[in-house]
Write a structure and sequence with these properties.
heterodimer; A: about 170 residues; mainly alpha; Four Helix Bundle (Hemerythrin (Met), subunit A); about 70% helix; about 0% strand; B: about 475 residues; two-stranded antiparallel sheet
Chain lengths: ~170, ~475
């Protein structure tokens, strides 16, 4: 087992545990910090794949900006529960059915994906992350998706204003 | 590349309309604002429809193989744009209440319409995904537009959560497909699948996940659970939009996916579509029977109609494709018409129980007659659009020896007689609780007149449209 693979498994373990903690904890502040950890570890996976630029973006946007936004949102909204999270239910009476569904989905995916022989190519040696080439791809081949994303963000922005406005 | 932008003119006009409405919202005074903004949006949408119609007959694939121009997409885009324009007009009365934010409302409708145009023309899974998101995000917000209404908020939240779940499923399927073929381009996927065994389970799983994601948009069983609650909770003018227009784009993207990317897997996906068609028809019709709320009843009836349309996807071929386009046209006309009347009745009675239609035959005889026509059309009564649509779909199925599928469709149409006539019975045989004549605005009359014209035109003299759908509607990638 190569060092890269070992690192991948270790990172995956931390990412999945962190993600699980986020949805299980009753303390939303703990969830925010676990979110920070999980997102940083995903950045590490990108680093492992020699995608340095992606890793940097992941840290800047998800670990940095998004986490900071969540903290701001928490700071500015009035909490209706006690800080220890007492009285908050993180699941409901359908937990059995949803567990079975998720487990069934996992079983199907493992059954199908594990025996699959993927067409793996020997990766070309990466000298350095070529941001200029990436920019050229985004603004040539992917210009249309890029522009559509900007409209999606605008629509989401307007939508948030509509939902957050004061009625009367 | 610059020359390619000529093909994107309709999309650019729609984007400019969306932004223009936002700016206009800021500069206009409060007087007649909803109407002026609506007319501006309608002008933009109809201009885009005109440019789209002008491109008819062109075949091109532009923007680095991302976006495809073919008459199949162009015809559906015109239908989407006209449908969106009518939806904007329908909402004017709703937006005339104080503090109703007409600028944001019209912007969201137009932005969602742009998403549907992107969906309809995308030749790339990434672009299709983004198109679906651009369609859906404004719809989540529109569903929750009545901020102080808990049912409206519930509708928005349910729509959003299920939408995100299916988006994740769809992305997972796309990643599997990318892992197998190394591309997201539909035509390249078809070419690369030549080197892969078609019974590869990963390929099948990826295809199923992507189809599942697209099926959410058209509310096909088993991805329909959002529909009744969203239809019931949303403002009725939003429901009218959601029930008709996005489904056209959903069918477009679904058909383009299976016809362009998976010709090698035709037996697999036709089986899948046939199964979904049967489940969708039966579930929709059975569940519509006990409904007390007209919006929920029309939601399940809409699900049943998606089932009939799916029959046309289960039997590939030029005739079936034409039948599907015709069916979508007929479906949107009669659904939009029925919902317009629900809006009109709701504005007077402030509720949406089927019993609120009691005595409509005496209170508003023309309205009741129009509603009867739309319901008969949904039933598939001769001389209406619904009959021609069902006839084309069922005969396309029989032509390909899927007699059993057509038979199930016919049996389901008979079942639907029960709940459609429940409404007719309320209108004509149950005495009204209030005896005053109903007031209906001129705009609503105009919309009903348009829907009635299309419903009758497609029922009485459908030949020109049938010829159009049979011969003109071709995909860029021929199968």
């Amino acid at each position: 087992m190569s060092g890269q693979l070992l690192a991948f498994w270790a990172l995956s373990f931390v990412i999945l545990s962190g993600a699980l903690y986020i949805v299980m904890t009753k303390n939303i502040m703990h969830a925010v910090f676990m979110h920070l950890l999980t997102m940083s570890m995903i950045a590490a996976v990108y680093g492992l794949l020699h995608a340095d630029f992606m890793a940097a973006m992941q840290v800047l946007i998800y670990a940095g900006a998004v986490t900071a936004m969540v903290v701001f949102a928490l700071m500015l909204t009035k909490s209706q529960s006690r800080p220890d999270g007492a009285g908050i239910a993180v699941d409901n009476q359908q937990r059995g059915a949803s567990f079975l569904t998720a487990a069934g989905f996992l079983a199907v995916v493992i059954y199908v994906l594990v025996p699959q022989k993927w067409a793996v190519h020997e990766a070309a040696p990466v000298v350095k992350s070529d941001v200029a080439a990436m920019g050229a791809i985004i603004f040539k081949s992917y210009i249309l998706p890029f522009e559509v994303i900007s409209v999606i963000l605008l629509a989401a922005l307007i939508g948030v204003i509509v939902l957050a406005r004061k009625e009367d | 590349m610059a020359r390619e932008f000529i093909y994107l003119v309709p999309e650019i006009i729609v984007l400019a309309t969306a932004l223009g409405v936002l700016v206009l919202d800021l500069v206009l005074g409060a007087k007649r604002k909803p109407l002026i903004l609506a007319l501006a949006s309608v002008a933009g949408l109809l201009a885009a429809a005109g440019f789209t119609a002008n491109l008819m007959g062109q075949r091109a694939i532009v923007m680095a193989d991302m976006f495809v121009i073919d008459s199949f997409g162009l015809v559906l885009k015109v239908v989407i744009l006209v449908g969106a324009a009518l939806s904007v007009l329908l909402a004017v009365g709703f937006l005339e209440r104080p503090k109703s934010h007409p600028g944001e409302y019209d912007f969201l409708i137009v932005a969602s319409t742009l998403g549907m145009m992107v969906m309809t023309g995308s030749n790339n899974l990434l672009l299709a995904f983004l198109g679906i998101q651009l369609t859906s995000i404004p719809l989540y917000i529109l569903a929750g537009f009545k901020r102080n209404d808990s049912k409206s908020s519930e509708a928005a939240l349910k729509y959003f959560l299920l939408g995100v779940l299916t988006a994740a499923l769809m992305l997972y399927g796309m990643s599997l497909l990318y892992g197998l073929t190394g591309t997201l381009n539909l035509t390249t996927i078809a070419a690369r699948l030549g080197g892969i065994k078609t019974n590869d389970p990963v390929l099948f799983l990826g295809m199923v996940f992507i189809i599942a994601g697209f099926s959410f948009k058209i509310a096909a069983v088993p991805f329909h659970f959002w529909a009744p609650d969203v239809y019931e909770g949303s403002p009725t003018c939003v429901t009218a939009f959601i029930s008709a227009v996005p489904k056209i784009a959903g069918f477009a993207v679904l058909l383009r996916l299976v016809y362009t990317a998976f010709p090698a897997l035709t037996p697999q996906w036709t089986g899948l579509m046939a199964l979904m068609a049967v489940l969708t028809m039966v579930t929709g019709n059975i569940m519509a029977i006990p409904q007390k709320d007209i919006k929920r009843m029309l939601a399940f009836s809409g699900i049943a109609h998606v089932g009939y349309a799916l029959i046309a996807l289960a039997v590939p071929g030029q005739n079936a494709m034409g039948a599907l386009v015709f069916y979508l046209l007929a479906y949107s006309a009669m659904t939009a018409g029925a919902f317009t009347i629900v809006v009109a009745v709701g504005r007077v009675s402030h509720e949406h129980q089927i019993t609120s239609f009691a005595g409509l035959g005496t209170r508003a005889p023309v309205l009741a007659a129009a509603m009867t026509v739309f319901l008969l059309s949904m039933l598939g009564f001769p001389l209406t659009a619904g009959f021609t649509g069902k006839f084309l779909v069922f005969s396309a199925a029989i032509e390909k020896h899927y007699v059993w599928l057509a038979l199930i469709g016919v049996i389901n149409s008979v079942i639907s007689l029960y709940y459609y006539f429940g409404v007719v019975r309320q209108m004509y045989l149950t005495p009204a609780r209030a005896t005053t004549k109903m007031q209906v605005s001129g705009l609503v009359w105009l919309l009903i007149a348009i829907a009635l014209t299309v419903t009758f035109a497609l029922g009485i003299y459908p030949e020109p449209v049938i010829n159009l759908t049979r011969h003109l509607v071709v995909l860029f990638a021929r199968f």
